[in-house]
Amino acid sequence: TPDVLTLGETMVLFSPDEPGPTKHQQTFKKSLGGAESNVAIALSRLGNDVTWHSKLGADPHGNYINSFVRGEGVDTATVEFTDDAPTGIMFKERRALGETSVYYYRHGSAASTMTPDDLPADAIETADYLHLTGITPALSDSCREATFAAVERAREAGTTISFDPNIRHKLWESDEEMRRTLLTLVEKSDIVLPGIEEGRTLFDTDTPDEIANACRDRGAAIAVVKLGAEGALVDDGEVTRVPGYEVERVVDPIGAGDGFAAGFLDGRLRGFGAVEATKRANAVGAFATTVTGDVEGLPTEHELDVFLGEREALRR
Ligand code: KDG
């Protein structure tokens, strides 16, 4: 019985060695990217028992992803491999003056063929938390059905559902469908973790407290609105602003939200209240921004304790 079960697509991620337009890139670093496996890896490094479920191509990329995630101590026993579709791929593009963009090669990927029948029913029912993101329901009709089937099973079993909307405009056919789907998931979740811009998109409202309030109106017990470098606002009936940590050199903010989710769930699993858990979430999110990949910067339990001043570093 895992502490946390999460499911979704993970792709091989190619990040250029230098900033600049993709067209002119020659060399890329290979790693992996997938919001839910990022969360799983972060939670595992922090000492939790995590299961990640997905479908991968029976190809070298699928093999690499499975080995990597399992190598991080995440349970991947239910992950399926298919010969009928390839593992997805993505490229990051970092422009020195602008924000990071991504290019996906994932349409028709192995993960997009996931169906409700592929779900690890036992793990969903016995886990403490089911963590989902708004990426999975955008991948295909069968993935949307699988997401909702997972939610229903979790609700029936009393598994706490945490949900990160993770809006990826490139994956949705229309904004209207995106909003409808994500808002339904907000309604069915216990913990909702939107970024400020995502909250604005979903709720047509502006301030963090209005966004948190909108999540709670729709049934979430806890809403945490992520404010980037400024930290987060948490609302569990009581509204608190929790300041973020200063990062000297932000290399790439992608993956910070996943670290944040992991830090929050880790805090809750340790029995922390919503504010303490949000502090932890801010810290793990900050770690994630220090590297170009999504997962390399995520802290171990020891590193996080040192960072938070709860343990002394022994450096040499
Ligand atoms: O949160 C980071 C993810 O966006 C990245 O790893 C890739 O899962 C990904 C996606 O679908 O964009």
If you had to describe this structure to a student in words, what would you say it looks like?
It contains ten helices and 14 strands. It is an alpha/beta fold and 316 residues long. The model has no long low-confidence stretch (mean pLDDT 95). It binds 2-keto-3-deoxygluconate (KDG). The site of 2-keto-3-deoxygluconate has 12 residues, from helix 1 and helix 8.
User: How many beta-strand runs?
Assistant: 14
Distance between the termini: 39 Å
CA-based shape: globular
The CATH fourth-level homologous superfamily of the domain at 35-53 and 117-307: Ribokinase
Structural classification: alpha/beta
Output the CATH topology of the domain at 35-53 and 117-307: UDP-N-acetylmuramoyl-L-alanine:D-glutamate ligase
Largest sheet: 8 strands, mixed
Looking at the overall shape, the CATH architecture of the domain at 35-53 and 117-307 is: 3-Layer(aba) Sandwich
Query: Which small-molecule species are bound to the chains here?
Result: 2-keto-3-deoxygluconate
Largest sheet, spatial ordering of strands = 4-1-9-10-11-12-13-14
What fraction strand?
Answer: 15-25%
Sketch the topology as an H/E string, one letter per element: EEEHEEHEEEHEHEHEHHEEEHHH
The oligomeric state is: single chain
Mean pLDDT: 95
Helix content: 25-40%
